From TrEMBL:
SUPFAM superfamilies assigned to the protein according to its UniProt record, in alphabetical order: Cysteine proteinases (SSF54001), NHL repeat (SSF101898)
Lineage of producing organism: Eukaryota, Metazoa, Spiralia, Gnathifera, Rotifera
Name the record gives this protein: RickCE-like catalytic domain-containing protein
Cytoplasm in keyword set: no
Transmembrane is among the record's keywords: yes
Annotated TM spans: 226-244
Naturally occurring in which organism (per UniProt): Adineta steineri
Length: 602
């Protein structure tokens, strides 16, 4: 276990709480960490008065580590008191459980605002209230929040039976607005000295009554659930008899099971358990987590349209821009890029046969792979087209296209991961898979990271060169979203295809109307990015622009589109795309041998 680095200045009170929490974590590590199966990390405190700070911490928790872990976040409610957040992660970014802790007796804290902020980063997770060991007043909450967080974390590994009882308790509290009898009993008044010293309680006395009360509460909740589900089943049967004249259909399949988005899906089809797809704007929804825009209107029960971002139209050159060449302040037809959390830029400098890193605000780059001339030796590259950087391991995975291999560099040591592939684009997902596009086999394959001896699995294309929905024509860059749908820039078909997990064919989500300059057309599309709203960004190379569309709906030019050129509002065959943590857009201006940064307009 270790603490996250303190990344921002905190007021004195916040810093004190952080210090106490860090100290308690160190004590736990020294005494009993070997008995605990998960790592525990404490993030820097969150001040409710600082806009966006909670989302920043949640992004840290989500991105910075990959192992099973518990994240603790002290939360200053400003003029009120302190609460705490505790999040248990599975591997990578998947949440197992999330709780908030409120140590103040009779607190009037409302969870709705906290849940709304939390859902911006984790839309499918509900924050639950977790009972605390020490209940205090508002003034003492700063002191005891660290103690309560540590105590809760170290007892977090409940058995499945214990966790069910805890969930029943929470449900009962929400339904009845009461607390269990055991808690009421212990908080009514302090025990007198005589009562505490007369004789020790027997084991039977200390366990029988709480167990009986817990069993009674559980039985009550089970009865409520039984009545609820019987009523639901009854209503469904009545509805079926009404709509089908007393005869139930032999088979019923929701719209989404055909693998094609028809834009008539309901929340049951695209936002519920039947289908992993989320609902598009104007489609039905039950909660914001059903919608691609993460915004469900409670009155109309329809997904609202996302708020579209805009960017400054004059860019800032952040790498290259000094003509083509081999100097450290130059690039030569760059392709893919990767931007880390510190805004450092990693560039596949294709015609210089190297990967260069430009530190944030640096005037020149540094070579971190290749740079030893064109060749096929282990320390050489030949026309690299894409690059991925491991945030934790700092390893670099490169599409070494000219050498027909995917190679990894780690501390100047090289390992060929995949050989004999005409690779172009690379992508990874949160489940530990690596995706590679093959421009000559017209397919995208997937490998489990670390298991490269097999041939991988075809997840898009693989049916020869062509323009049918089950075919591709020189696939380039790829993007994989959270449900493992694969987006492919189908270059010579001038379209972007989306292949859902397990689908036999894809759907056209951008372009597909022949090569051209109209808003519904593309010309040799390159890098693609899909944001959490489902909006698709495409580097439209030969149209010298970056497009944004919404699965065939609204289409617009984001930047560029002012003709081919080298002015700050012009592009010359854009290829790579990326965003930083602030939403600024980075474009690889390939034939101008530079990386352009377009600032977001707040």
């Amino acid at each position: 276990m270790e603490d996250y680095p303190n990344l921002a200045y905190q007021p004195l009170e916040n810093a004190t709480v952080q210090s106490i929490l860090s100290s308690r974590l160190k004590e736990f590590k020294q005494k009993q960490s070997e008995h605990f199966s998960k790592s525990i990390y404490a993030l820097t405190t969150v001040d409710d008065r600082v806009h966006g700070q909670l989302q920043e911490r949640l992004e840290q928790a989500k991105r910075n580590y990959t192992e099973e872990r518990i994240i603790l976040i002290p939360y200053n409610l400003g003029n009120s008191h302190w609460i705490g957040l505790m999040i248990e992660f599975k591997i990578n970014e998947e949440i197992d459980r999330a709780f908030f802790i409120d140590p103040v007796k009779n607190s009037n804290f409302k969870r709705e605002k906290l849940q709304k902020l939390f859902s911006e980063i984790f839309p499918d997770t509900i924050l639950r209230l977790r009972p605390v060991q020490h209940q205090v007043d508002q003034i003492q909450s700063a002191r005891f929040i660290s103690e309560n967080l540590i105590n809760a974390a170290t007892s977090f590994e409940l058995t499945e039976k214990e966790e069910n009882i805890d969930n029943n308790y929470t449900l009962a509290s929400l339904i009845n607005q009461t607390i269990p009898a055991t808690e009421a009993k212990t908080t009514t008044r302090p025990a007198t000295e005589a009562e505490t010293t007369t004789r020790p309680a027997t084991k039977a006395e200390t366990t029988t009554r709480p167990a009986t009360e817990a069993k009674t509460a559980t039985n009550q909740i089970s009865l409520i659930r039984l009545v609820y589900w019987i009523s639901i089943i009854f209503c469904v049967l009545i509805a079926c008899l009404y709509f089908y004249d007393g005869q139930l259909p032999e088979k019923s399949s929701p719209t989404c099971t055909d693998g094609i988005k028809n834009y008539d899906e309901t929340d049951i089809d695209c936002g519920g358990e039947t289908c992993s797809e989320k609902c598009l704007p104007e489609q039905g929804c039950r909660s914001s987590s059903d919608c691609t825009s993460n915004n469900c209107d409670t009155k109309s029960k329809k997904c609202l349209k996302p708020k579209y971002k805009k960017w400054e139209q004059n860019a800032i050159t952040v790498a290259g821009g000094n003509g083509y060449g081999q100097k450290l302040n130059q690039l030569d037809r760059p392709e893919g890029i990767f931007i880390d959390k510190n805004k450092n830029i990693f560039i596949a400098d294709r015609w210089n046969h190297r990967i260069v890193e430009w530190k944030y605000n640096a005037k020149e780059g540094q070579i971190i792979a290749g740079g030893n001339g064109q060749g096929n030796r282990m320390n050489q590259l030949f026309h690299p087209t894409d690059v991925i950087v491991g945030q934790q391991s700092h390893s670099i995975i490169i599409a070494d296209s000219g050498n027909r291999r995917v190679i990894r560099w780690l501390n100047q040591k090289q390992q060929i991961l995949i050989d004999n592939t005409d690779c172009y684009g690379l992508a990874t997902d949160t489940y530990g898979f690596l995706y590679v596009s093959d421009v000559l086999k017209n397919e995208v394959r997937r490998w489990k990271i670390g298991e490269y001896k097999n041939e991988g699995v075809v997840v898009a294309g693989g049916n020869g060169k062509g323009d049918q929905l089950n075919q591709l024509n020189r696939p380039g860059f790829i993007f994989v979203n959270e449900d493992q749908s694969v987006y492919v820039s189908d270059q010579d078909n001038h379209r972007v295809m989306k292949w859902r997990k397990g689908a036999k064919e894809g759907i056209v989500v951008a372009g597909g109307n022949g090569e051209g300059r109209n808003l519904d057309q593309l010309s040799v599309p390159q890098e693609i990015i899909v944001d959490h709203f489902g909006q698709i960004y495409v580097a439209d190379c030969w149209n010298n622009r970056v497009m944004r569309c919404y699965e065939g709906k609204k289409v617009e030019i984001v930047v560029g589109g002012n003709g081919q050129g080298h002015l700050l509002n012009q592009l010359n065959c854009p290829r790579g795309l990326s965003f930083d943590g602030e939403g600024n857009l980075y474009v690889v201006d390939n034939s101008n041998h530079r990386i352009e940064k377009f600032l977001t307009i707040l």
